[in-house]
Amino acid sequence: MRQVLTLIANPAAPALDDATAKAARAALTELGAETAPADWLAPSLACDIGFDGLNEDQAQAAVARALAGRPVDIVAQAVEGRRKSVLVADMESTIIQQEMLDELGDLIGARERIATITARAMNGEIGFKGALRERVALLAGLDAGVLTQMIGRVTYMPGAATLIATLRRHGVYCALVSGGFKTFTAHVRETLGFDEDQANDLILADGKLAGTVVEPILDKDAKHQALIRITAARRVPVAASITVGDGANDLPMLMAAGIGVAYHAKPSVAAQARARIDHGDLTALLYIQGYRASEITVA
Questions:
Q1: How far is CA 64 from CA 5, 61, 168, 251, in A?
Q2: What's the CA dihedral at 151, 155, 159, 161 to 10 degrees?
Q3: What pLDDT digit, counting tens, does each position of 206-265 carry?
Q4: All domains of the chain, ordered by start, with CATH?
């Protein structure tokens, strides 16, 4: 079979069974596709259904209708080139659970105000650069030491450590590219084992936050360019990459990659991304690439 549809459940609440897989296969067959029996990548968590003779978007939509209401993610793609050699990941609300500017806002009693701006920027309602400058300006005068203190608030998305450990074990180059700040990306890179990180730098003056950011600001275009740079440096085509993110500033790199995954994303992002994970954790990116349970390094 030249194409494959993958069904993925959340490991915290496995909800994938033979009946669900058969319903998905039947939906493909009804549209005239030639299909193969379910191939289980991980019991109760993920399975592949090979198919031919159907547009991948059509296949994905048909199965989504057939499985409506079930907590299962659905990704259809070509089999050839399915496994990628480069991962480029957003950090905040993707690899980690926090938006670190929102956390910093706690220190000045402006968390709600900053979080509102963050949400609007991530949903594409306002420009990222302006939103970043506006939020950072509110932090002017804070002692620079708060950045190190805030590292203690970082918690990781379920599956993040396993995702990176598995990809690194299989020789995949993993890059963390964030519109956030270098203090936090450096910590996450070192903790999880990313190969590199790229982010914005806050300007300090006399040991305090100046309320400004080093220009140019790393935004959606810079993330896209990072993807191009990284794949070129690795001497692989962009098609050999997988990207993951949740916000509007991730869209260009999600759309450009071999497969871009909107992970528990903002509505405007999920609607446009080629693949979306609404139910599973970050190990879903492994199943999308066809990794089996026996190949996954649990971390």
A1: 11, 5, 32, 22
A2: 30
A3: 999 999 999 999 999 999 999 999 999 999 999 999 999 999 999 999 999 999 999 999
A4: 1-80 (3.30.70.260), 82-299 (3.40.50.1000)
Closest to 297 measured CA to CA, from 170, 174, 172: 170
Q: Count Cβ atoms below 10 Å from residue 57 Cβ, excluding itself.
A: 10
Residue 44 identity (one-letter amino acid): S
d(CA 265, CA 148): 28
How far apart are the C-alpha atoms of 84 and 74, rounded to whole Å?
A: 19
Tokens of 190: 């070192």
Q: Is this prediction's pTM over 0.85?
A: yes
Sign of the Cα pseudo-torsion (16, 21, 27, 33, in order): positive
Q: What is the three-class DSSP state of 74?
A: strand
